[in-house]
Amino acid sequence: MQNLQPFHTFSLPVQAQKIVEITNIDQLKQQWAQCQATQQPIVLLGQGSNVLFLRDFQGVVLLNRLMGIQHTQDDNFHYLHVNGGENWHQLVTWSIQQGIGGLENLALIPGCAGSAPIQNIGAYGVEFKDVCDYVEVLNLSNHEIFRLTNAQCQFGYRDSIFKHAYATGYVIIAVGLKLCKAWRPVLKYGSLVELDKSAVSAQQIFDEVCAIRRSKLPDPAEFGNAGSFFKNPVVSQAEFARLQQDYPNMPHFPQADGTVKLAAGWLIDQCGLKGYQLGGAAVHQQQALVLINRDHATSSDIVELAHHIRQKVAQRFAVWLQPEVRFIGEYGEVNSEQAIA
Ligand code: FAD
Ligand code: EPU
C-alpha cells in the first residue's frame, strides 16, 4: 500500500494500493488497460482538493500531471489551451502577469485545470463556464479524444456533464479558455462591490480576492480541508417564503429560474456550530461551511461531523444539506448523501 495523505487536501491517514503520476496520454491509456485486465478499481485525482477518502482505496490512484499551456490570440480574444494537470491558481497568476484578464475572480482555488469543469468551479461572481471555450476529453474505452463545447458541458451550479453522462470512463485531458481582450471587471460579490469600476485593474481584483479568501478559508497546509463541504441549497420560492417568515435576515440569492439559493454557511452558523469539534474534525471558526482536519482526524470523524451538521440544520430549517465534496470508498466513488444520512 502507498500513503495517500500527501495527495488529498483533507490529509487523512488513508492509503491506496498504488499511486501513479500520469504525465502523458499513452501512459494513461496503458494504466487504464492494465487495471481493466487485473480488475483493479481506478480513481483519477488532480490535487485531491474536493475529495473525502472514506477508507483505504483498494485500487490504483492516477494523478493528473499532464502539463503545458498554449496561448494564441486574435483581435478580440486570448485563447488558452491548458493541459489538465496544470495548477489552477498558477494558471490564474500567470495569466494576470501576461496582462490577460478574466480569471482574477477565480484566484486561489486549489486543484488542477482539468478538474475545474467538473463542478464548474466558482467564486466571487465568476464561474468556470464564463471563461470556458471547450473541454477536451479522452474516452478510455475506445481511446477517442474529442472536444465538448461550453453548451455541451451542461454547466450548472457546482454541476456539469462530467458528474453525469461523462462521470466514468472519461478523463478531462485539457481545457480551452476564451478571454475577451475588452476586459470588464466583475465586482458583484462581497467587498468587491466597493472597488471603483472605472479604475480597477485585474491585478487589484486578484489581490483583493486572495486577501478575502486568506481571511476566511483555512490553508490546507495548516488544517486539512476540501473547501465548502456542502453545496449552498437551492429551494423553491414557496419554501424560501416559509423560511423568510421566521428568519427575515437570512442571506439569499434569487436565481434566474425563480429558485432561491441559500447560504449553507449561515444555516450551520445559526445552529451554533462554528468551532464545533467531533473527534479530530471541526467546523472552521471563520467559515462554518468548511470542515477541517483539526487534530489528526480520521475519515469517520469527518463523516460523523457532517452527519451531525446535516441533522441539526434539517431539524431547525427543514433543509437537507448535500455534500459538495466527492466521497471515495474502498472501490470507488460512493453516494455522499447516503454516507452521511
Ligand atoms: P480532485 O479533488 O482531485 O478531484 C475531484 C473529482 O474529480 C474526483 O471525483 C476525481 O475523481 C475527479 N477528477 C479529477 N480529475 C479528473 C479528470 N481529469 N477527469 C475526470 N475526472 C477527474 N471550489 C470552488 O468551486 N470554488 C471555490 O472557491 C473553492 N475553494 C476551495 C478552497 C479550498 C481551501 C479547498 C481545499 C477547495 C476549494 N474548492 C473550491 C474545491 C476544489 O478546489 C475544486 O473542486 C477543484 O476544482 C478540485 O480540483 P482537484 O484537482 O483537487 O480535484
Ligand atoms: N455566512 C455566515 N456564517 C458563516 C459562513 C457564511 O453567516 O460561517 C454567511 C456570510 O456572511 C454570507 C453568506 O453566508 O452572507 C455566504 O458566505 P460566503 O460569502 O463566505 O460564501 P459561501 O456561500 O459560504 C460560496 C462558495 C465558495 C466560494 C464563495 C465565494 C459554495 C458551496 N461555496 O461560499 O466556494 O469561494 O461562495 O464566492 O457555493 C467551494 O466551493 O469549495 C468554495 C469555497
Structure, described:
Helices cover 23% and strands 27% of the residues. The protein is α+β, with helices and mostly antiparallel strands. The strands form six sheets. It has a five-stranded antiparallel β-sheet with strand order 6-7-12-10-11, with no helix packed on it. A four-stranded mixed β-sheet has the order 1-2-5-3, with helices on one face. A hairpin with a 6-residue loop joins strand 18 and strand 19. The longest helix has 19 residues, at 299-317. The protein starts with a strand and ends with a helix. It binds flavin-adenine dinucleotide and uridine-diphosphate-2(N-acetylglucosaminyl) butyric acid. Flavin-adenine dinucleotide binds next to strand 3, strand 8, strand 12 and strand 13.
Task: Map the helices and strands.
Elements: E1 2-3, E2 15-22, H1 25-38, E3 42-45, E4 51-53, E5 57-64, E6 69-73, E7 77-83, H2 88-97, E8 122-123, E9 126-127, E10 132-139, E11 145-149, E12 170-180, H3 202-216, E13 224-228, E14 234-235, H4 237-246, E15 252-254, E16 260-262, H5 264-270, E17 277-278, E18 281-283, E19 290-293, H6 299-317, E20 326-328, E21 333-334, H7 336-339
Parallel strand pairs: 2-5, 3-5, 4-20
Antiparallel strand pairs: 1-2, 6-7, 7-12, 8-9, 10-11, 10-12, 13-19, 14-16, 15-16, 17-18, 18-19, 20-21
- Ligand types: flavin-adenine dinucleotide, uridine-diphosphate-2(N-acetylglucosaminyl) butyric acid
Helix and strand element order: EEHEEEEEHEEEEEHEEHEEHEEEHEEH
Largest pleated sheet: 5 strands, antiparallel
Low-confidence stretches: none
What structural class should be given to the helix and strand makeup?
alpha+beta
Question: What average pLDDT do the residues reach?
Answer: 97
Q: Determine Rg (CA atoms, Å).
A: 20 Å
**Order of strands across the widest beta sheet?**
6-7-12-10-11
Net shape? globular
Percentage of helical residues? 10-25%
- The helix tally amounts to 7
Beta content: 25-35%
N- and C-termini, Cα separation: 30 Å
How many β-strand stretches? 21
